[in-house]
Specification:
Belongs to the metallo-dependent hydrolases superfamily. Residues 20-313 form the Amidohydrolase-related domain. It comes from Budvicia aquatica. The protein has 315 residues and is α/β, with parallel strands linked by helices. The protein has helices at 4-7, 35-38, 58-64, 85-99, 116-123, 145-148, 158-164, 166-169, 183-192, 211-225, 246-260, 280-290, 296-310, and strands at residues 18-24, 69-76, 104-106, 131-133, 173-176, 198-200, 230-234, 265-267. Strand 5 (173-176), helix 9 and strand 6 form a beta-alpha-beta unit. The chain is globular, with a radius of gyration of 18 Å.
Length: 315
């Protein structure tokens, strides 16, 4: 199996880890509109992300990931202009035709809007589409969750749930992205749709590492782990107020792998966003260090086999 670097005539990593990257982004700001990359939000959970406000193309990803043997990648929607959602999917497929990656694509639709199925069918004209990421309405903090429950676009909204049912109809998965104080609600959706495959993005964002914050996160993670149709991406562990270190993230990573089992966890870089806190090479090496106690077959499942199966990637 050739790596993406070999396919593009680049030097293949002599060492490093063989992997499939289950979550990264590409964007061309010269030709497409990404509102968050044009209008800086000082209140973003990312902190200062001005360095992201430039093109991130396949060549950039290949350079960042060159220390490891990347068999395939999954492109996840990057908050492209939602008035023309299919444009991002079209552009990503053009990159795949030229560079041999991404090898699976997760675009966006709004589940609660009247044109959900129309937009979905537009995405499905492109062969690499494997799932959908649609972010439900969420509260800005744990103490405000009740205020958004049941509103339009929330996970209790009948219209949102009707749109969500399109995933099962078209044999697609859901990339779930909510902060940790909404994980239990997401588990209720997972239980209501047991035949829809779901993958939690970014470990449910365990941003609050206080005892109380982690208690809320653990409760939600347990609820999702109890749903056999839910997997999890171990990704985006950067915190706004501290660096990415093994010491800081070891416990939340190991709690996640113990809750879900290594057969339901997958590596995802979230580059270039994760690059605000850590290099690609160090990210992979840090996770490998944290998971050193697992067997070689378990680590192989984590780093590439689970993503290959979940996103139906042909190598």
């Amino acid at each position: 199996m050739k790596s993406i670097h070999e396919k593009n005539g680049l030097d293949a990593a002599s060492g490093g880890i063989t992997l499939i990257d289950a979550h990264h982004h590409l964007w061309n700001l010269d030709t497409h509109h990404y509102p968050w990359l044009k209008n800086y939000d000082p209140d973003s959970f990312l902190g200062d992300y001005t360095s992201l406000m430039q093109n991130y193309l396949p060549e950039d990803y290949a350079q960042d990931s060159s220390g490891h043997r990347i068999l395939a990648t999954v492109h996840c929607e990057a908050d492209h202009d939602y008035s023309d959602e299919v444009a991002e999917t079209r552009w990503v497929h053009q990159q795949a035709e030229r560079y041999g990656f991404p090898n699976a694509v997760v675009p966006h639709i709004w589940f609660h809007q009247d044109n959900s199925e129309e937009i979905l069918l537009g995405h499905l004209k492109f062969p690499l589409v494997r799932g959908i990421r649609s972010k439900p309405v969420t509260a800005p903090s744990p103490d405000q969750v009740a205020r958004v429950q049941g509103v339009s676009g929330s996970m209790q909204d009948d219209k949102w749930l009707s749109g969500f049912s399109l995933l099962e109809k078209y044999h697609l998965s859901w990339d779930l992205r909510v902060p940790f104080w909404h994980l239990e609600e997401a588990a209720e959706v997972a239980k209501a749709f047991p035949d829809t495959r779901i993958v939690l993005n970014h470990m449910g964002f365990p941003w609050d590492r206080s005892e109380n914050g982690l208690a809320i996160w653990r409760k939600g993670m347990q609820a999702l782990a109890d749903c056999p149709n839910v997997l999890v991406k171990v990704s985006e562990l950067g915190l706004k107020d501290r660096p990415w270190t093994v010491e800081c993230n070891r416990s939340v990573v190991l709690e996640t792998t113990e809750l879900f089992g290594m057969d339901r966890c997958m590596f995802a870089s979230n580059f270039p966003v994760a690059g605000l806190k850590i290099s690609y090479d160090q990210l992979v090496n840090n996770l490998a260090e944290i998971l050193d106690g697992y067997s070689s077959s378990q680590r192989e499942a984590f780093f590439w086999r689970n993503a290959k199966a979940f996103y139906r990637i042909e190598l």
